[in-house]
Automatic annotation (TrEMBL), chain A:
It comes from the Bacteria. This is Roadblock/LC7 domain-containing protein.
UniProtKB/TrEMBL annotation, chain B:
This is Uncharacterized protein. It comes from Schumannella soli.
UniProtKB/TrEMBL annotation, chain C:
This is ATP-binding protein. It comes from Schumannella soli. Pfam families: ATP_bind_1. Belongs to the GPN-loop GTPase family. One of its GO terms (molecular function) is hydrolase activity. Keywords: ATP-binding, GTP-binding, Hydrolase, Nucleotide-binding.
């Protein structure tokens, strides 16, 4: 049986490097995590006290719900999700070709455009570094 | 004692060595058919009990009950036995510790047999073991998924799950007729899924408002065609 | 608008999504993701937010069926959905390890519903004959709360007829319990 992604040291290493790079690109990043589609924390970088495993579960729920909305409205899978609040913006999106989600919290002064483009760039760079996911691991959401 | 089986029965009977004897008749209770079975089963008492019973239904294969396992075996689905057989002979035997099962286990859940027998065998009359003035309350839900049932049965069981009721009170609470309520109580007491109480208080229900909508149960029942 | 929320809960792989599909009039909204824990439960996917189905009773009257994820790491979804729920169908597999204890632990997380009498337990795969069997679940529940008679039925979540019996039993139990006046009862003559 393949090792679960969240326990794969290569993925964890590459992921950590990607998230660290993202924090350099956008110093407004408070928290950034990579998580599996089913809510396991793979790796995270944090400048705040956050329960990583709980955040990973919640992010996966949000990702799945947003995909369900896209399916219901027949507008395709969710490309990104933004949650805005007074004290920060959460942006999350999938790593292309992987059953992995990138979720990050940015300070409120950061523009949404910058935050989103930084997250996208990070996701694309990480996608190029990771081997193609096994087809079994990329089971499509079952609507 | 040699078993006599309907066509298709195994040639070797597990119970051929069991010393069955006619079940004792209850004093002052003249019953026949399935009612005789019900009285004999009720007399066995709470289960598990170290008793096995053989029911010889005229022109049908015998039904075996093993009260140690709360199970029975019948060669036909229980619904294919006659609802009012010409005669049923009841034989039983007391088993010793370690005696083998009289049919391959797990057998069928005894509730299935007792539900069918108990609901019909006394008609609209109370079962002979019931005492006037008693109220009844569930101590265990029967597994309705495995019992032939109507929604009225479930509604009555739900009432009994939450308070003690007599047959009249049960019919009123569940919105059913008294005959169904009595039959259900007969069956449930035979199955020993209710406890009886002579001292339980009259259940008090919140009066329904005149403008109250029909219950969700009723609306869903209509929608699902149940 | 009258809505009646029924939750479907239980461990991963118990058949919650399947049960909702058996009952729902609409195509069920699922939120499945690839399962990273195939060694725990050998399923390709798992629910990570909720399943949603419904039964329409009238213009403004629906029964909403919500399935929650089975894993404890999604218990925030349990908290969100149980606030709105009238009742809950708990599904367990009889052949799962420690099935009875698992049921007890899950009921602990849905204690409010349990204590209001708004729970029915559906046990699947009893026909395999390898699990503790129905009586063990009832006995465990009785030991915990002798005053609550919780329905425990065998069930195949794929079977619409069986799931309807389970749903109707739950509703009947909730409504009958609600009919009873609290506290003072008349003294028996």
């Amino acid at each position: 049986m393949n090792q679960p992604i969240h326990q794969d040291q290569f993925v964890i290493g590459e992921g950590h490097a990607a998230l660290s790079g993202m924090c350099e690109l956008a110093p407004s990043t408070i928290y950034a995590a990579l998580l599996t589609d089913d809510g396991f924390d793979i790796v995270h970088v944090s400048r705040t006290q956050t329960e990583a495993s709980r955040f990973a579960s919640m992010s996966s729920s949000i990702q799945a719900l947003s995909d369900a909305v896209g399916h219901e409205l027949r507008i395709g899978d969710s490309e990104y999700v933004i949650m805005g609040s007074a004290q920060g913006h959460v942006i999350q999106l999938r790593i292309p070709g992987q059953p992995i989600v990138l979720a990050a919290l940015f300070q409120p002064h950061e523009t949404l455009g910058k935050a989103l483009s930084t997250a996208r760039l990070t996701a694309e760079r990480l996608a190029q570094r990771l081997p193609a996911a096994a087809s079994a691991a990329m089971a499509a959401p079952n609507f | 004692m040699t078993a006599t089986w309907a066509q298709g029965a195994p040639t070797e009977s597990r119970y051929s060595g069991v010393g069955f004897e006619p079940a004792a008749e209850a004093a002052g209770v003249a019953v026949s058919g399935w009612a005789r079975v019900a009285v004999a089963v009720h007399a066995v008492g709470p289960t598990p009990a170290p008793v096995v019973m053989r029911l010889d239904v005229a022109s049908y294969a015998p039904i075996l009950i093993d009260f140690r396992e709360r199970a029975f075996e019948a060669k036909l689905p229980i619904g294919q036995y006659p609802s009012a057989p010409d005669s049923v002979l009841v034989h039983q035997a007391t088993m010793a510790e370690g005696d083998a099962a009289v049919f391959p286990l797990p057998g069928a859940d005894l509730d299935k047999l007792l539900w069918r027998v108990g609901f019909t065998c006394f008609g609209d009359a109370p079962a002979p073991w019931l005492i006037p003035g008693e109220r009844y309350k569930l101590n265990r839900w029967p597994n309705f998924v495995e019992l032939t049932h109507h929604m009225d049965h479930i509604r009555m069981a739900a009432a009994l799950a939450n308070a003690h009721y007599s047959a009249d009170e049960l019919a009123a609470a569940a919105g059913t007729d008294r005959s169904s309520a009595q039959r259900l109580i007969n069956a449930f007491t035979l199955m020993r899924v209710v406890e009886a109480s002579a001292v339980a208080a009259v259940p008090v229900t919140v009066p329904a408002r005149a403008d109250a909508p029909r219950s969700l149960f009723r609306r869903l029942r209509e929608k699902l065609g149940m | 608008m009258a809505e009646h929320v029924i939750l479907f809960a239980g461990p991963m792989g118990a058949g919650k999504t399947t049960a909702i599909r058996s009952l729902s009039e609409i195509e069920v909204v699922s939120t499945e993701a690839a399962n990273s824990e195939r060694h725990v439960v050998d399923k390709a996917t798992t629910t990570v937010a909720l399943d949603y189905g419904e039964i329409t009773l009238g213009d403004d009257d629906k029964v909403r069926l919500y399935g929650v994820p089975g894993q404890k790491r999604f218990d925030f979804m349990w908290a969100i959905l149980k606030k709105r729920a009238r009742g809950m169908i708990m599904l367990v597999n009889d052949d799962a390890p420690d099935a009875v204890q698992t049921m007890i632990e899950y009921l602990d997380d849905f204690r409010d519903l349990y204590e209001r009498g708004g729970v029915i337990v559906g046990v699947s795969r009893t026909d395999l004959g390898v699990g503790p069997g129905l009586a063990a679940y009832s006995a465990a529940l009785q030991a915990q709360r002798p005053d609550l008679i919780v329905p425990v039925f065998t069930v195949d979540p794929r079977d619409a007829g069986q799931m309807r019996t389970v749903l109707m039993t739950l509703i009947a139990n909730i409504e009958m319990r609600a009919m009873l006046a609290p506290a003072a009862e008349a003294v028996a003559p």
